[in-house]
Amino acid sequence: VQLQASGGGLVQAGGSLRLSCAASGRTFSTYVMGWFRQAPGKERDFVAAIRWSGGATYVADPVKGRFTISREYAKDTMYLQMNSLKPEDTAVYYCAAGSRWRAGLTETDFNSWGRGTEVTVSS
Fold first, then answer.
1. How far apart, in Å, are the Cα atoms of 67 and each of 22, 73, 79, 95?
2. Is 44 in contact with 107 (CB distance < 8 Å)?
């Protein structure tokens, strides 16, 4: 599966952005898609995931209530709607695809990764 993330940019605190991740290739093998982020000098963290069939979602606590993950099944595209952005949300956001859905998803559950899109939130 090939993934292409887009939609990043510079936004003021309190603003919104919507990230997109388009999947191509062997998408029929995708069971879960998700977003991770990596801030400068920090490890990559889980943000949110969505079960491709059925649409169940799982969102990390730091962004719960502000970020919404969704997918458009017919277009093999996943979205991350980010509202009430904070400076601490500044990071490179990566989309990923995996072959299983379980509680407590981590990087090891994902085997295909996009290049990332940069989000900068100014104070």
1. 18, 19, 10, 14
2. yes
